[in-house]
Amino acid sequence: MLLVMAGLLLAGCTNGPAKKDVKTTSTVRVMYYNEDSFHQTYGDLFTIQNDDIKIEVISTDKMYRDGEIEDYDKALQDFIDTEQPDVLMVDVGRYSQMVSEGKLTELDSLIERDKYNTESIYPALLDILKEKGEGKLYGLTPTFYRNVIYYNADLFAEHGVELPQDGMTWQDIIDTARRFPTDGDKDTRIYGFGREHYRGMTLDNLANTIASPLGLKTVNPETKKVTVNTEAWKQVYKLAQEALESDALYNLQEDPFENGGMRNYYESQLFLMGRMAMTVNGPYYLRELKEIKNRVQDYKPFQVGIVAGPVDPANPEISRDVYLNNVTAIRANSPNTDAAWELVKFINGEQYAKIKSRSMNDGILSRMGMTKDSDGINMEAFYKLKPAIDDSSSAVEDKIPYEFYSKFYDISSREIGLVESKKKTIEEALQVIEEEGQAALDQAIKEKEAKDGAPKDKEEASADSSEDQGV
After folding, report:
1. What is the CA radius of gyration of the chain?
2. Whole-angstrom Cα distance, residue 430 to residue 437?
3. CA angle 424, 209, 306 (to 5 degrees)
4. Ranges of the chain whose pLDDT falls below 70
């Protein structure tokens, strides 16, 4: 009897329903600056649809556990070598460097294999990433940052001033600002232009703001020369000086939070309050324009427009004011390439862009057409100018000692301060800045070479430098 029962049980087990296949789960390690921020921005949305892929965030905050970092490039590379992340999220300068060092996985073949749609991605961004990728794609970016010119259409109509146009230069902006009246007390008058959150607009920082779209630099990292005593810089400072003296620009001097908290803050933001004709700001400013309507009692809304700019008059079709901070890439030789690619696809995909199209929390979406307007403000201006990414900042970090900048800042602030107090001309000040700045730079380089044990012989130093750069 026992033998019969055992046989029946065995038969039942043999003929019963087949076991379901166990779903394989992969773990993708992601390098990002903060774990919570990654999950809030990307990870939670991805996990809802991809329960077979777990995400482990490797926070770069770990790099600072032992204090300040002297050599960030070395510290980051050591971090990557130790932690072995599958997905990296880096700025465009780091992306370009890692491509040249063979540390990223080419994405073109994966895009082709999966027929991944890149047609709705802002073409200029793909062009940049290919250019920095030596002709191939090694990363994609879900968002980018760019400033535009915001204007109060109601003030322009009220004072009979022609509306701003795409491609305005700083000269155009300042000339337009000066067409608005300057009469009235500081609590009621309007201004032609101002920078929100800009405390104490000095001649020095306004000149540097004007110089940015022109591509002007204070230091040439290749020649290691200070380059401010030039005709171009003189014209920039003269334009800034004329603008400040015209009284057409709003120049907030005090801390807006100092007296009265948020109410005082909003009252100091004159464009938001309808008392400034133009300002230059980024995409997050769209959110502030929405929020103020619910935060200020009896708020009076006005018609807002945006145009592309400011631009370099010599290159009016491009913008140097573009930043790519979240280029998503896959580490070369990652053992989880397919799972990592699923995450990269999602972060840069149309579905993610649709979900994020209403928030404006992380820049402008690289997927075009997802956000055509924001509270009635047409978004086309963000996509009109061709981005031009300047890699010189990375070169400056590599070749110009960090210690130099504090000394240079002190020299520049002192001399430009003398210009503001009418004790020196712009020409005199720039000459001194260049001479003393060069002496400070030479000394900083000499001290850095001594600290690093660099060879004193120029030819030997040049040979070592070429070797370091893989020449």
Report:
1. 28
2. 10
3. 140
4. 1-24, 197-200, 253-263, 360, 390-398, 454-471
Number of Cβ atoms within 10 Å of the Cβ of 163: 11
Q: What is the DSSP letter of 272?
A: T
Query: Which SS3 state, helix, strand or coil, does residue 349 take?
Result: coil
Both tokens of 91, joined, read 């700025």
- Spell out the long-range contacts of 186-192 with Cβ–Cβ below 8 A and sequence spacing 24 or more: 189/275, 190/155, 190/270, 190/275, 190/276, 190/277, 191/248, 191/249, 191/250, 191/270, 191/275, 191/276, 191/277, 192/248, 192/249, 192/276, 192/277, 192/278
Bridge partners of residue 323, in order along the sequence: 145
pLDDT digits (tens, 9 = 90+) for 425-447: 999 999 999 999 999 999 999 99
* Gap between the Cα atoms of 417 and 271, Å rounded: 28
Displacement of CA 191 from its chain's centroid (Å): 28
Round to whole Å and give the CA distance between 341 and 52: 14
How many other C-beta atoms lie within 10 A of the C-beta of residue 38? 19
Alpha-carbon gap, residue 401 to 355, rounded angstroms: 43
Burial class (CB in 10 A: 0-12, 13-18, 19+), 273: middle
- How many angstroms separate the CA atoms of 352 and 43, rounded? 11
Nearest partner of 431 among 231, 236, 240, judged by Cα = 231
pLDDT given at position 465: 42
Task: Collapse the DSSP code of 194 into the 3-class scheme (helix H, G, I; strand E, B; otherwise coil) and give the result.
Answer: strand
HSE-up of 324 (CA within 13 Å, CB side)? Answer: 30
Task: Name every residue whose Cβ is closer than 8 Å to that of residue 58 and which is 6 or more positions away in sequence.
Answer: 29, 30, 31, 32, 83, 85
Backbone angles phi, psi at 207, to 5 degrees: -65, -40
Greatest distance between any 2 Cα atoms in the chain: 116
- Which H or E run contains 151? strand 148-152
Whose structure tokens read 């329903």? Answer: 17
